[in-house]
UniProtKB/TrEMBL annotation:
Organism this protein belongs to: Acanthoscelides obtectus (Bean weevil)
Entry superkingdom: Eukaryota
Ranges of biased composition (kind: Acidic residues): 45-54
Pfam families associated with the record: DDE_Tnp_1_7
Domain PiggyBac transposable element-derived protein: 147-318
InterPro entries attached to this UniProt entry: PGBD (IPR029526)
Protein name: PiggyBac transposable element-derived protein domain-containing protein
Disordered: region residues: 1-101
């Protein structure tokens, strides 16, 4: 039939053709042929080929004035773009070229002349000057007592912090009939504790026993048993409300840091030092308690200690 309507497929093809034509008109007013020509020009690697004055998107070519140098004859870029061809600016290098030049400069500056020899290498040894080794605290000398040396390490500043935190913890726990502890009483408490390491008993209460065969009168004469046990129960070094949950040494606060500083400030070491591990006996509950069967105290807290070989004085330690 001559007057037959076009089929559905023919109509669809016509619509697709119109869409392609409309799409071609959407390249900033350029036809598809002009877009292809522009793409080929931009991808061209021939640097000697003169630039197309109409490469910009419809911008007008404005020639330079007569008084300007021929080196400044560049295209004027549209207002919305940066002037990448300004002769007053340093030309931008390609990334690979710039990287190569930087590497050449680095190699030139760091070039080392290494000469291999068969001679045995003998390192330079510096002579140790021991004139400053020994005590740094001028108030301590050969005539000083052991208590003087002890007080220089466990200073009153440390004892003051311990007294404050112990009283704070006793109040937090609502300790019945608690009497605030002070610095002198804390010194007595630690003195009694150190003496217990020399006099072995089965338990703490035996140090205050009245048994004629087991009694050690010095403990009862120095501090009562109930008071010692009370201080021992509430002894604290930091505020529990400020201790971070994942800090294993948070219960000590800054006591360990101050103690290390006191070690370093009181003594200049001699030439020979040693680093060794040490076990502090502890049988209680602790997440980082260790067991080393070769140690004298198999259970406890392991420390890495830096000591002076000549005097045995501890200079630093790591828990």
């Amino acid at each position: 039939m001559d007057n037959a309507e076009p089929s559905t497929s023919d109509g669809r093809k016509g619509r697709n053709k119109r869409k392609r034509d409309n799409a071609g008109a959407g390249y900033c007013g350029l036809t598809p042929e002009e877009v292809r020509n522009l793409s080929q020009y931009l991808m061209s690697s021939d640097e000697d080929e003169p630039e197309d004055p109409f490469a910009d998107s419809g911008s007008e070519f404005i020639p330079s004035s007569e008084g300007e140098s021929s080196e400044d004859d560049y295209l004027q870029v549209s207002e919305g773009e940066d002037n990448k061809h300004d002769s007053s600016q340093t030309p931008v290098l390609e990334p690979e070229t710039a990287m190569d030049e930087r590497m050449d400069i680095i190699r030139e500056r760091t070039r080392l002349e290494i000469q291999w020899t068969d001679k045995e290498f003998i390192p330079q040894v510096f002579a140790f000057d021991s004139t400053n080794s020994g005590l740094r605290n001028v108030s301590l000398n050969d005539q000083s007592s052991k208590v003087d040396f002890f007080l220089s390490l466990l200073s009153e500043n440390i004892m003051n912090v311990i007294a404050i935190e112990t009283n704070r913890y006793a109040i937090q726990r609502d300790a019945p009939k608690w009497k605030s502890v002070d610095i002198p009483e804390l010194y007595v408490f630690f003195a009694v504790t150190l003496l217990m390491t020399r006099v072995k008993k089965l338990n703490i209460k035996e140090y205050w026993t009245q048994d004629i065969l087991l009694s050690t009168p010095v403990f009862g004469q120095t501090m009562s048993r109930n008071r010692y046990c009370e201080i021992h129960r509430y002894l604290h070094f930091a505020n529990n409300e400020e201790v971070k949950p994942h800090n294993r040494l948070g219960k000590f606060g800054n006591i360990l840091t101050v103690l290390k500083e006191n070690f370093k400030s009181q003594f200049y070491p001699f030439e020979h030092l040693v680093i060794d591990e040490s076990m502090v006996l502890f049988k209680g509950r602790l997440s980082f308690r260790q067991y080393i069967k070769t140690k004298r105290h198999r259970f406890g807290i392991k420390l890495y200690v830096l000591c002076d070989c000549e005097t045995g004085i501890v200079l630093d330690f790591i828990v």
